[in-house]
Amino acid sequence: MNVRTLARVCALWLAALCAYPAYATQPRIIVGFANAPHILPGPAGATGSRYGGDGYRVAQSAHSQARRVAAAYALHEVASWPIEALGLHCVVYEITNGRPVPEILASLSKDRRVVLAQPLQEFRTLTAPATAAPVAAVAAVAAVAAVAAAPPYNDPLYDLQTNLVALGIARAHQRTQGEGVGIALIDTGVDGAHPDLRGRIARTASFIATRTRRPSDLRHGTAMAGIIAAVANNNIGIVGIAPLARLDVFEACWQLGPGDDAAACNTFTLAQALAGALAAGTPLVNLSLAGPADPLLTALITNGLKRGVIFVAASAPQTGFPGAIPGVIRAVGTGEPLPEGAFAAPAVHVLTTRPNGQYDFESGTSVACAELTGIIALLMSATPTRLTGSAITTLLSTRERISGQAADAGPDPPPVDVNAALSRLDTGMRAAR
After folding, report:
1. Residue 127 located in a structural domain
2. Per the count of CB atoms within 10 A, which of 14, 222, 312, 332 is most buried?
């Protein structure tokens, strides 16, 4: 990727700051300037402010260009951040003279000092409207669970986790539980004090503007964390799909309303979170969100894919990020149309963790994405060899054929089969010896 493309990407990222409605008093744009990499050594496992670029400095030339461009176009700098992975210095500007955004961007695109100039974009999590599961539905789930074999866990709510039964998780846990796998959860924050998430969160970093947040403002992230990694056999609550995996929480989204599962993020916050995940070396990234195609975010994910990072995304129609990026593994809910190369998982009334030690049902493609992330963590922990994204896709997509037709064909394909994938993985490992 050349410098101009990278700068274009950077502009998108900074423009993303406009998504904060409380802060956007004037129209905002993102402008990117070439910034020669200068890496300063940092302590291993550094967190927090290091993700903000403390180890990657802004060159004097880039800083000077940013000041001159601001003066020439009547722009006010709101925020800036150097992106080490892309060699860019990105600046968020407010337009202070009332000129239309398209007019400013057109002028900046012809300025030799500017690598990129674009507007801010917004992204949303993909959960259904928050509604409690009907009493009749809960009763039906309990009735189904009651006729099943004795539960393999002592977690009291396991019987209501029909998604785990559909995915064959209890059998898979006899082989692996995700031990040693790090997962970056890019979402809202997570209520790390939840008793079923105790010990599962290795690090946290927030890229949301400083403000007071209560645990109740962290609904979506807490729900995804529980689906992926809730502690098993602790006599509390539920079972996670990869209960021994480690979560790195990168807070890039904010809840849209009290008691609301919906959350939003923007190019600026997501770019910082992705860069943080890459800096941390986390091998598996969960993105239970979607939005428009975004050059800056695409460049960061492409950079990660080249490093062998696995990205799992919620798939949604007519969205470009992140599911449309080649190499990203996509998830949809069972019963939904299955795009080529995507995988299905249960996504209706899935029981999970909530802030303040609570539990509730969650629905939506975000759920399927978290489940698929947990399943991939099981595969990654089952082999000493680091799996590539293409290897994981092959393990998950190859199914037995019935009467000459693939078992996952048709309008209502079954959920992804982790046990079949583990069997194929073991067969391949034996053949390689």
Report:
1. no
2. 14
